Amino acid sequence: MLRYLFSALFSLFLFSACSQDLDSVQGLAIGDKAPLPTLQNEDGQSLSLSEALEKGPIILVFYRGQWCPYCNRHLSALEAIRDSLELEGAQLFAISPEKPEYLQEMQEKTEAGFNLLYDSAYQTIIAYDLAFLPSAGTRLKYNTLLGAKLSEAHGDERELLPVPATFLIDQKGIIRWRHFDPDYTQRSDPSEVLEALKAL
């Protein structure tokens, strides 16, 4: 009985510690050191962002999921400038809490030629200070009207989401540019991403 009570209390603490109100989410700032974990890509293969950084600057895009039309349009727009980004020596990665099979759906929808990465326990989203818990009503809308299936598509049932954000990370691992806006309809402009990269 005590073990069950301890487990329940620990789970509640962990849930509370990792979920935030949207108003308290700030995102990592320009000048901050960027966390660079190893994550699974859409094929289920491990990909080390720290190793990728050795090849050149990294552009990290955080998105909500394949069910999000704004995310679809944004990733498609970034795919359109991918060749230009790669000519500047940069690599583009997009991160979400969705499992690899859902990343594959996103890849098909957007024809993304860059790696989509699975943040299995929200660790990267939390590390970049992007994680928040939408209201129960909002989650119900996403799950029913948009088919998000958050608890099924994510690695656990917390149903956290990231504030959509874009970070440009130089080869020293420092964030040199970012786009962050709690309004999920506002995304980084691909031309501004490319301009920021050229200014490194």
From TrEMBL:
<dbReference type="GO" id="GO:0008379">
    <property type="term" value="F:thioredoxin peroxidase activity"/>
</dbReference>
<dbReference type="Pfam" id="PF00578">
    <property type="entry name" value="AhpC-TSA"/>
</dbReference>
<dbReference type="GO" id="GO:0034599">
    <property type="term" value="P:cellular response to oxidative stress"/>
</dbReference>
<feature type="signal peptide">
    <location>
        <begin position="1"/>
        <end position="19"/>
    </location>
</feature>
<keyword id="KW-0676">Redox-active center</keyword>
<dbReference type="InterPro" id="IPR013766">
    <property type="entry name" value="Thioredoxin_domain"/>
</dbReference>
<comment type="function">
    <text>Thiol-specific peroxidase that catalyzes the reduction of hydrogen peroxide and organic hydroperoxides to water and alcohols, respectively. Plays a role in cell protection against oxidative stress by detoxifying peroxides and as sensor of hydrogen peroxide-mediated signaling events.</text>
</comment>
<dbReference type="InterPro" id="IPR050924">
    <property type="entry name" value="Peroxiredoxin_BCP/PrxQ"/>
</dbReference>
<comment type="similarity">
    <text>Belongs to the peroxiredoxin family. BCP/PrxQ subfamily.</text>
</comment>
<keyword id="KW-0732">Signal</keyword>
<feature type="domain" description="Thioredoxin">
    <location>
        <begin position="28"/>
        <end position="200"/>
    </location>
</feature>
<dbReference type="InterPro" id="IPR000866">
    <property type="entry name" value="AhpC/TSA"/>
</dbReference>
<protein>
    <recommendedName>
        <fullName>thioredoxin-dependent peroxiredoxin</fullName>
        <ecNumber>1.11.1.24</ecNumber>
    </recommendedName>
</protein>
<dbReference type="GO" id="GO:0045454">
    <property type="term" value="P:cell redox homeostasis"/>
</dbReference>
<keyword id="KW-0560">Oxidoreductase</keyword>
<keyword id="KW-0049">Antioxidant</keyword>
<dbReference type="InterPro" id="IPR036249">
    <property type="entry name" value="Thioredoxin-like_sf"/>
</dbReference>
<dbReference type="GO" id="GO:0005737">
    <property type="term" value="C:cytoplasm"/>
</dbReference>
<keyword id="KW-0575">Peroxidase</keyword>
<keyword id="KW-1015">Disulfide bond</keyword>
